[in-house]
Amino acid sequence: MPEDTFGEFDPTYAFIPGNDSPGSFRDYGTEFVPIEIVSAVGELPASGLPGDAEITAGLPTGLESDRRVLWYVQETGQYHEYQNGNWAQASQDFVNEVLDNKLYIDMPNNDFIWFLNPRRVNLGLRFSF
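The structure corresponding to this sequence follows.
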């Protein structure tokens, strides 16, 4: 959402400013890159993982070991990444790639239902007496 979405009012929830609109989607065959949000740098988790996530092979209960996760710090407006056991500001090239290609949008894994048309087709016979 644009940064001025809420106008003079305080946002009702933490959000990352952007230019998305309903119907925005990630292209077919591109890798999902989650973006987590925290209020301040001090809230970045020591493990580098969101919530109770663990590095596991058996999804959906965890993350792949090579999954990159971006963290947006609302206080500074910067993106951070946990690399090699340390927090660092994320590479601007990587951030631009994620934002420009909308890699942070999590679509259903079954891409054949992404744009399923909700029209109804009814076939039948009607008898009137």
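Strands lie at 35-38, 70-73, 78-83, 86-89.
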